Amino acid sequence: MDGGAARVAPLAKAGQGRPVLAPTDPGTIAYPTRLKNPTHIRRIVGYCDMPKSPWSVPVTTALHADGVKVADLDTSATPGFRGGKKAGELLLEQRRTVLSELQEKLYANGRSGDPRNILLVLQGMDTAGKGGIVRHVIGSVDPQGVAAAAFGVPTEQERGHHYLWRIRKQLPRGGQIGVFDRSHYEDVLVVRVHNLVPPEVWGKRYDEINRFEGKLAESGTTVVKVAMFVSPDEQCKRLAQRLDRPDKYWKFNPGDIDEREFWPAYQQAYQAVLDQTSTEHAPWYVIPADRKWYSRLAVTELLIDALTRLELDWPKAQFDVEEQRRRLNGC
Ligand code: AMP
Ligand code: MG
Q1: CA of 93 to the centre of ligand 2 (A)
Q2: 170 and 45 in one domain?
Q3: Number of C-alpha atoms within 13 angstroms, CB side, residue 66?
Q4: Is residue 317 a part of any domain in this protein?
Q5: Relative to the CA of 251, which ligand 1 atom is closest?
Q6: Is 110 within a domain?
Q7: What string of H, E and C letters represents the secondary structure of 191-230?
């Protein structure tokens, strides 16, 4: 299903031409060429003869949902990454710049009529870090090119429509990176766990969602679906932190504690989502999210991978460059 290294765009050799854009492919790549001091990262990671990539396998392979058993997941793991927190944070700084450059190209092409766009779907229990991805990963790119939407309990108006109605309204346009903090998947997650509609209604939604996303892919949307998982203990810690800090009260919802009672039911509902809606055109990636530095780095790499596969170039000038230069009269 996932082409992994085979799908990664041709890479520049370290030190030549454009920066290397896909350091998650361990076979072919070097560190980002703009990493000021590559030995520094090697020293932090602690490998004296460390291979070229800090990833042992492409991130798309390391995180692919195929075969994942949610109940057995080690939420503190850092799949595919060879280093620890310091190396991860250092690398993330570099990769944010690469992401930002690619996003600018996507935006530029969109302005020139290219319909292609990216849709990042973030799912996860409360405190899994969805908001942190929006702030720290999507926050590294030009907000002009971002279409962000968060989906909460449907409003009365939304309840009067098909569950995909509110989703369609927020889809990214050509050149944009769309990000959904929760999504249409709530309609087979919270809805299933709390029996908000009968099983024969939510049961049909998996196929419907697959068809919906298939059409999105056909119309030029690369759908990147990320399921973030924290352990119950980590969630407890994060909820308690929210209560310790007045600047975090706004994030706290007493209902989040009630939802903890339903942990096994949510695990089952997430398992069904991964089993039934991870498709070739819109695969799920599963992110162990107890370590925020890892989940942010992993999502950054997934977005870089998706953008790299678009093989974007700068749009050609729609005017005669020389003529315009002459008109400026050498000012
Ligand atoms: P938060 O993301 O913390 O702002 O919480 C949003 C809440 O809205 C979560 O408890 C979701 O489960 C809930 N929610 C999102 N979509 C739906 C839906 N379609 N039906 C019912 N509840 C939903
Ligand atoms: Mg919440």
Answers
A1: 27
A2: no
A3: 11
A4: no
A5: 3
A6: yes
A7: HHHCCCCCHHHHCCHHHHHHHHHHHHHHCCEEEEEEEEEC
Of 11, 29, 52, the one marking the end of a domain is 52
Domain that holds residue 16: 1-52
In the prediction, which pLDDT does 179 show?
A: 98
Atom of ligand 1 nearest to the CA of 181: 2
Domains identified in the chain, total number = 2
Instruction: Answer yes or no: pTM beyond 0.90.
Output: no
* Amino acid (one-letter) located at 264: P
108 and 210 housed in the same domain: yes
Count the neighbouring beta carbons within 10 Å of the beta carbon of residue 213. 20
Residues with CB under 6 A from ligand 1: 126, 151-154, 182, 186-187, 190-191, 196
Q: Which of 125, 127, 135, 151 has most ligand 1 atoms within 8 Å of CB, for mutation? A: 151
In this structure, the residue with its CA closest to atom 4 of ligand 1 is 152
Residue bearing the CA closest to ligand 1, atom 17: 153
Residue closest by Cα to atom 1 of ligand 1: 152
Counting ligand 1 atoms within 8 A of each CB, the residue from 123, 153, 187, 261 with the most, and so the one to mutate, is: 153
Q: How do the pLDDT tens digits run along the chain, 331 residues long? A: 333 333 333 323 332 333 333 455 543 334 444 444 545 555 554 443 445 789 999 999 999 999 999 999 999 999 999 999 999 999 999 999 999 999 999 999 999 999 999 999 999 999 999 999 999 999 999 999 999 999 999 999 999 999 999 999 999 999 999 999 999 999 999 999 999 999 999 999 999 999 999 999 999 999 999 999 999 999 999 999 999 999 999 999 999 999 999 999 999 999 999 999 999 999 999 999 999 999 999 999 999 999 999 999 999 999 999 999 999 987 8
Shared-domain flag, residues 151 and 40: no
How many Å apart are CA 132 and CA 154, to the nearest integer?
Answer: 23
Which residue's CA is the nearest one to ligand 1's atom 8?
152
| Whether residue 148 sits in one domain with residue 176 | yes
* Residue the block writes with tokens 């203990």: 233
Q: How far apart are CA 20 and CA 34, in angstroms?
A: 9
Are 223 and 116 in contact by the 8 Å Cβ rule? The answer is no
Residue nearest (by alpha carbon) to ligand 1 atom 22 = 153
Domain for residue 330, yes or no? no
On whether both 86 and 129 belong to a single domain, the answer is: yes
Q: Based on the domain organization, do 42 and 106 belong to the same domain? A: no
Distance 154 CA to ligand 1 centre (A): 8
